[in-house]
């Protein structure tokens, strides 16, 4: 058996500590009763008779009784509490003294730094001035070529305006009509003009140029209102796999084959050899055009313009201008607009795109631009080409109810033409494109 506690409640026998004022079990007031210590004397140990053989005899020395007197617990508790408070006050006083000493040291450091504050600020200001000057020089070095080009264009425009102003002044003053008009020469020229007019009225010439590029692709010309107007910039927009590049190449190929119209296809994301091989598999061999169709890529452009100086944008535009002078092509395909923006390292806003499209028009050519935007809605801020182009042909991949996927195309706009805005299914049988109204059991 375990020994009982040395102190216990006189009422319930529950063990208590010497300084407890109340019993933890029955609530007996321990101050009113005298707690008697329990005396335990261990003189011997009883062994189990069944295991006498297994145990040996043990002798335990007697433990004398230890009398414990219970002091006044209330006074002791108050004394301990006062002692703890005194120690806490001493500790707080020590911390306050340390804090006051720290504040004093910081105040002395601040006073010592006040005299050197102006001296320390001067190097920082000079560093900022040097940094601003360096940034200004870097910006000037970066935009110097463009500023010079703009300055030269401005000078040309000013010269043209000055010349036009002088001519206007001369016309007003009558200075351009200094020599008398030869009446005989005037009569002769007038007679030649009337003879030419009479010959044209008697036998009207055949119209060879209707102002349209007829693609000869079944149904496509009807969708666009008769064909592609010459001098227009047409945007062929669509997701990957919609055969944008193949369709624009087919337009150039048929124009070179049927109308003897020269064309340039510039690919910025694929090699010319790969494109030629791919188009031959689609039934459009380049050799059949007899040199009227040229396929170029970045590598060929780099080799041709190795001596050209300037940015990629300037080199590319100069290359197109150079090829236009050499072969006098009438149709140009840029594949693609996003690749052009990427390699030129130029932030194209709406005005930049307008300048680019106006530059195409200044060459007097028809431009087909391949675009890779796949947004359902045109955003004027991010896709200004949709608003600046003269026409838009939209191509997409449309999933049918039976999990079939068809290529659909529609003419979003074509300035000056009566177009068909409906969607048409686009098929390629290995030789040419075909368009037909889609058979779908659900509206688009």
What do you see in this structure?
The chain is 44% helix and 13% strand. The chain has 444 residues and is α/β, with parallel strands linked by helices. Among the domains are: 1-70, no CATH class; 212-436, P-loop containing nucleotide triphosphate hydrolases (Rossmann fold). Strands 5-4-6-7-3-8-9-10-11 form a 9-stranded mixed β-sheet, with helices on both faces. A two-stranded antiparallel ribbon has the order 1-2. It is elongated. The two termini are 94 Å apart.
Radius of gyration: 51 Å
Tally of helical segments: 11
What is the SS-derived class?
A: alpha/beta
CATH superfamily name of the domain at 212-436?
A: P-loop containing nucleotide triphosphate hydrolases
Low-confidence stretches are: 1-5, 34-45, 118-123, 204-209
The gross shape turns out to be elongated
Here the CATH topology of the domain at 212-436 equals Rossmann fold
Q: Compute the separation of the termini in Å.
A: 94 Å
Biggest sheet: strand arrangement: 5-4-6-7-3-8-9-10-11
Assembly status: single chain
Estimate the strand proportion. 5-15%
Instruction: Based on the coordinates given, report the CATH architecture of the domain at 212-436.
Output: 3-Layer(aba) Sandwich
Q: What does the main sheet amount to?
A: 9 strands, mixed
Count all strands and give the number: 11
CATH hierarchy, class of the domain at 212-436: Alpha Beta
Compact overview of the structure:
This protein is α/β, with parallel strands linked by helices and 444 residues long. 44% of the residues lie in helices and 13% in strands.
